[in-house]
Design a protein that fits this description.
Blueprint lengths: L1 E2 L4 H15 L7 E6 L3 H11 L6 E4 L1 H4 E3 L4 E12 L9 H6 L5 E14 L13 E10 L2 H8 L12 H11 L3 H6 L2 H18 L8 H19 L7 H12 L5 H4 L1 H35 L4 E2 L1 H11 L3 H10 L3 E2 L1 H15 L10 H14 L7
Parallel strand pairs: 2-3, 8-9
Antiparallel strand pairs: 1-7, 2-5, 4-5, 5-6, 6-7
Keywords: Aminoacyl-tRNA synthetase, ATP-binding, Ligase, Nucleotide-binding, Protein biosynthesis, RNA-binding, tRNA-binding
GO molecular function: alanine-tRNA ligase activity; aminoacyl-tRNA deacylase activity; ATP binding; tRNA binding
Family: Belongs to the class-II aminoacyl-tRNA synthetase family.
Length: 376
């Protein structure tokens, strides 16, 4: 972030130097987008940086104009894209980006906050009469994504951040590389979740029923559930946390300091969840079989909530299992059941509404069920 200091020219120059000189990315693999009305950014990229105009794409309000809300700070954006198929030629870049092809991977987004939007401003023009007294820069870049580009792999999970964990999972499960590649999702879910759980526990967030603690419990139990699918029926996450600590411990030394405690918490939660899995999944399977027999394909919110309340089976695990058998879960009615139960029991805050973590989990689940978000 920068407020009231440098602006478009310097931000573009700094970032281009970072990508090409410091990271060493080849210039002929980069393309950029600018907002359709942002002639200044276009001129900087083309004339000062020297990007071929065939690699610069003017985009619309939906993709290249940032705003905080209906009113307030806003401004155009400029994205830097990585061309994953340069052999297709420079003439295909502009139509390819406009069509949102998988060929192009966004590796950076420069946000130029320069206007103050009022309700009187036109919705789509991108031209506003009120400049901010101190324009600002917001640069967004995902660490794992840029790492995948620098290391020349096509997925975050193929970087040296995740591969040692995935290799450890494969070793524990006794699967071949071919078997792993044909069923990669469990490996990726476990690798992602064990890293998250390791850091949560290190920061003092332990598995529990509410708030941040419920998030910790969720990621541990979901990882355990996917391990169960790979035949890992005994506690295994503590062994994987060692791989996380080995990868990240040089920069986060507190991981080494808390390693024994991390392993203890993980193993205890896994053992507790294994009892849940044994009883809860059996009951869930019975419910799904009954639905199939009656020609239905959706598990009710009431049934889902009862599974969670009785056996502690997380809604995400219920959804995972239902999806594997081509069933859906009524998330809206599940959320209603949770709210009703919370009011009856007096839990939560302010007359028992569900805490923010539960609201977040339900929203996330709805987005996944609508295919807005995916597991990987």
């Amino acid at each position: 972030f920068s407020f009231g200091d440098y602006f478009k020219r310097e931000a573009i120059q700094f970032h281009y130097r970072l990508l090409t000189e410091i990271f060493g990315l080849p210039k002929d693999r980069l393309a950029v987008t600018v907002f359709s009305n942002d002639d200044e950014a276009y001129q900087i990229w083309s004339e000062e940086i020297g990007i071929d105009p065939k690699r610069i794409v003017r985009m619309g309000h939906e993709t290249n104009f940032w705003r905080m809300g209906d009113t307030g700070p806003c401004g155009p954006t400029s994205e830097v894209m990585w061309d994953q198929s340069p052999h297709l030629g420079v003439d295909t870049i502009i139509p390819g980006i406009q069509a949102d092809e998988d060929r192009f991977l966004e590796i950076c987004n420069l946000v130029f906050m320069q206007f103050n939007r009022t309700k009187a401003d036109p919705e789509e023009s991108g031209r506003y009469d009120t400049p901010l007294p101190a324009p600002g820069i917001d640069t967004g870049m995902g660490f794992e994504r840029i790492t995948s580009v620098i290391q020349g792999v096509t997925s975050n999970y193929e970087t040296d951040i995740f591969m040692p964990i995935i290799d450890a999972i494969q070793k524990l499960s006794g699967t071949t590389t071919k078997q792993k590649n044909e069923n990669i999702i469990p490996y990726r879910v476990i690798a992602d979740h064990i890293r998250a759980a390791t850091f949560l526990i290190t920061d003092g967030i332990l598995p529990g029923a509410k708030g941040r603690e419920s998030v910790c419990r969720l990621v541990i139990r979901r990882a355990s559930r996917f391990g169960f699918k790979l035949g890992l029926n005994e506690p295994f996450l503590a062994k994987l946390s060692s791989a996380v600590i080995e990868i990240m411990g040089e920069h986060y030394t507190e991981l080494f300091e808390h390693s024994d405690f991390i392993n203890e918490v993980l193993t205890r939660e896994e053992l507790r969840f294994q009892r849940t899995l044994e009883h809860g999944i059996n009951e869930l399977e019975e419910e799904l079989n009954a639905l199939k027999s009656s020609g239905q394909n959706e598990l009710s919110g009431e049934k889902s909530f009862n599974l969670k309340a009785t056996h502690g089976l997380p809604i995400q695990v219920i959804q995972d299992i239902a999806k594997e058998r081509n069933f859906t879960v009524d998330i809206e009615s599940f959320a209603k059941e949770e709210r009703k139960h919370s009011k009856i029991s007096g839990g939560g805050q302010a007359m028992g509404y569900i805490d923010a973590a539960d609201n977040y989990k339900n929203t996330f689940a709805i987005l996944k069920s609508d295919n807005v978000l995916t597991d990987t």
